Request: fold
Amino acid sequence: MSYVDEVYDLVVEKNPSQPEFHQAVKEVLESLRVVIEANEEKYRKDALLERLVTPERQILFRVPWVDDKGQVQVNNGFRVQFNSAIGPYKGGLRLHPSVNLGIIKFLGFEQIFKNSLTGLPIGGGKGGSDFDPKGKSDREVMAFCQSFITELHKYIGADTDVPAGDIGTGAREIGFMYGQYKRLTGLYEGVLTGKGLSYGGSLARTEATGYGLLYLTEEMLKCNGRDIKNKIVAVSGAGNVAIYAIQKAQQLGAKPVTCSDSTGWIYDPAGIDVALLKEVKEVKRARLSEYAAARPSAEYHEKKNGEHGVWSIKCDIALPCATQNELDLEDAKMLVANGCFAVAEGANMPTTMDATEYFQKNNVLFCPGKASNAGGVATSALEMSQNSERLSWTFKEVDSKLKDIMVNIFHSIDDASKQYGMLRNYVAGANIAGFLKVAEAMNAQGIV
Ligand code: NDP
Reply:
């Protein structure tokens, strides 16, 4: 049996009931096959893959907090410190009822390669809790965040592990966590990113993932003889990534016509009104039906299982920006039949493996999230640099660094795909380019 297959089987055996983690490992290892086979003897002797798929440390903890009725609630807390070969652990904290160890491990594993692709010195980690901030009062969210950090602060620090936001963790949650960290440690240091501008946050961090997604998409199209101008774009999600992806797509001359949330989706043939979308989702934290109620050109559709949602709309470019496995094979078939020629992932692993393969077989330009959504973590690393310098850069400076990073990421994955004979296979290109740097650092640092 090949080394890759052996290690994948081991992952399944040792990590039961973690399908998302198995999926992420499979996707990465499959595309690394050619690199692994070329170095199989050394990698096998050093157990490089076994070490790569095993987190350096997993912290699981209880998060007790008191709700507004005086009732004690208990949630599960997680931080997976996956790999620190190239820098301190870096990765977001997800607060969502679906969070479990397998989800955090899949996200942490992906994060290793994504962070490597940014070219910045950051290792891979991820964390979160099954706490749901939706419907909670500010005081309840604060109580949860303070309890969460009271335990987690023992394991994080500006030079060891620097968490950030993710689904459910926005500026409010980061603020509460930062305040509690400072109170417990007495340190005013860049231990969390995504902070508010008044206490060490970076300009352009809010926009970074969505903007970065579009910078990379524009470069991918340009290098394949296409122009983003006047293209119809289908976007899913209506959160941080989706909103700023829609905004930047418009600035680049494209026309985004859809967005979605967990209860329904919008088709707005006149083009999404970003100001209205922000008002509904960022200010009112309301459902998308309110967007349609305020916008005559928009149709609102309730989410129904088995329907294609935003992927049923005719578009040139699809940008899945909501959550994992939200675009499956049937959706992919529909997109291809409707003439979609490019897909770039804003969310983490939103496309199922069979859907990805279908896109690739049908010559759709497909960029995986670990490359195309790396702008968020890259700008988080820029926030760390500013905190270390005790300086703040202008929006323009950060945005222009972000653009350079995204263009460089595209070229490094494009080059890797060419070098290993897999032209335009950006999934393989991203995994290979991300892996090689981490493997070299692990090799140089001995068996640790
Ligand atoms: P948000 O919580 O801001 O937004 C998520 C959006 O997706 C919300 O509109 C949510 O709906 C919607 N959504 C969630 N689940 C579903 C579902 N099952 N079907 C349809 N819509 C759904 O998160 P982000 O925008 O920050 O993150 C989105 C994705 O991008 C995640 O995969 C995240 O890991 C990834 N990512 C985020 C980065 C960042 O910087 N924020 C960086 C890199 C990756 P509702 O409004 O109803 O909650």
